[in-house]
Hints:
By secondary structure, the protein is an alpha/beta fold. The chain has a ten-stranded mixed sheet with strand order 14-4-3-13-12-15-16-17-18-19, with helices on both faces. Helix 1 (24-47) packs across helix 14 (426-444), helix 4 (147-163) packs across helix 8 and helix 10 (311-323) crosses helix 11 (343-354). The longest helix is centred in the N-terminal third of the chain and has 24 residues, at 24-47. Residues 137-563 form the AMP-dependent synthetase/ligase domain.
Amino acid sequence: MGNHSSPNPQLQCSTMKLKEDMNPLLLQVFRSVVWVYSVITFLPWYLLSGAGANLDRARRVKARSVSGRPAGPYRATNHEDGSQQKLVSSLHPGVDTLDKVMDYGAARFPERNCLGTREVLSEEDELQPNGKVFKKVILGEYQWMSYEETHQAAVCFGSGLAALGQRPQCNIAIFCETRAEWMIAAQACFIYNFPLVTLYSTLGGAAIAHGLNETEITHIITSKDLLHSRLKDILLEVPRLQHIIVVDSKPTSWPGFPRGIMVHNMDAVQELGSRPDNMVVARRRPVPSDIAVIMYTSGSTGIPKGVMISHSNIIAGVTGMAERIPDLDETDTYIGYLPLAHVLELSAEMVCISHGCCIGYSSPQTLARQHTRYVGTLYWTSSSIREQKGSKGDTSVLKPTLMAAVPEIMDRIYKNVMTKVEEMSSVQRTLFVLAYNYKMEQITKGYKTPLCDSLVFGKVRSLLGGHMRVLLSGGAPLSAATQRFMNICLCCPVGQGYGLTETCGAGTISEMWDYSTGRVGAPLICSEITLKDWEEGGYYSTDKPHPRGEIVIGGPNVTMGYYKNEVKNREDFFVDSNGQRWFCTGDIGEFHPDGCLKIIDRKKDLVKLQAGEYVSLGKVEAMLKNCPFVDNICAYANSDQSYVIGFVVPNQKQLMALAEQRGLRGSWEEICNNPDMERDVLHIITEAALSAKLERFEIPRKIRLSAEPWTPETGLVTDAFKLKRKELKSHYQEDIERMYGGK
């Protein structure tokens, strides 16, 4: 994981410096105008805003070393008196397994909306110039299932699976897109104690077959699209498979499958389970130590590993996450669109279910209205589903208050909005910049800015529905510039978190009133963190001014280990003398005096150059991703070479504008392959790197422009958009040899 820091809290590497280029006199005049207006219009609110209390909360010590040593372990401090917390493992009394979480929600909020899906009004195929067919859909309003209906659907589906031969504590797989049926199926498995094997929908055939065979799957839950596009070709490689349950309601016949495999519709399985003779079958309820999920990682470093997660592990992680979301209750609405096979999304949705929140489902393609004035397409993908132009995006219809996001999506919002700002008239741009810098000053003092929010940032905020109050970021590093932008322009705090599949996604989350950037907050109340010296990288807990080292996480949220992989278990996990499990993350962090953690390096990303200098590839990438010409970048270095090279997915709008300035013509691929464009972009990146205070040996000396974006579907990034360095190296091997002079 790369460095989260940025040398300047403003928009980095941008052609428009929001603060440095602003006339101080104009900013002072703007402050005065806003102050006078606030006194007249918002004085009662301003006096009661609690800015002082917010500032005190932001500045307080949030974690301390239990041992008193700089290495830790560090635990969260109590809000009232600053004492150390005991590690917490449960959210509600007696709710110690995931089936009880759903029972709790159904009993307490039976009529409350639970899972929502937009109605598909019509759909049509649209042929693209490149020959691909996109399915255009027109969507209506959200259709909801209550907590009681969701619970009953899960009970019937689980009963139906049992009638099809699925047995307690025998693994069952789900290979499906994020949707309400995914969560219903998961709840059914939790209720009937079927360990749920999760697989990313973007995994390749070999990885899918590996996961299904390793876990000895006989039953799999999937969608019609994935069955035909991904699963059907590997069925002969999964000899134990007997039953395929398709979550789509139609069609009811499935010809052309190998003998011995039966294909069912989810509705039919639920109907089977609702029969009186099947409903009376006693279920074996799980105990906290039972495996709830075997979650296969996205395979950023090779074959995916299955992480064994117990019921008590997830309960502990959910408890820690929920504590960092202020005022979380049944009035909140969460929008779910990230892969539910990823621990971030699954944990976030379980947090919501444990508090009676509504969960409305979306997708990266329908999240926000297409061709919007500010954002355009949020997210590149090769998926064949697109929302019809002019339709409302899911955020506009749902108006969520809570959302989890990966930095890739937030970076795209940030860059596209700032591109639009640069295209504004000088008066509009000046107003935006003044408001931006004024608000930045105010939020760091604990104040809100209702005038700026309503008059200047309202349209940007409406991109996510206009009601967002908490935005959680995880899965990869979030740059300081993007985090600051989201805080200011989307008018809601961004809680940046740090966690791994091996810790149920739980580790740290920054508090909502802490507007500092580049840090991931203090340890959650379910976990503690210690720093382990890493001599090779030169990181020690005795370092000044901040103790540094490899991050090791301990607590009830640390999982049971890797499925059938004792070698990796011994390498990465250990149990201390008190019986507590710990996980060695491989990430390098440092603790600040207030107990907040900052990620500064990753062991696997550190490369020693020929002359002996150490280069953190993740740090280089994090610094350069904010350059407006860079949509994505992978830094690469060989130990037998003296310099760094890079592969860059350029921003199409910026690059085409530069090509037009240079008088170059051609297709997108031709522009990217033009040596002159490579030189021009390299010069821009070099200037950005120098501005970001990178060392000369850290700056890429040669680059390759990629016309193809890196998406999970291409296999070059994970579903959380982490770079797959092994696959990227293989993909660009010829370019590596060229840029290193054939060596």
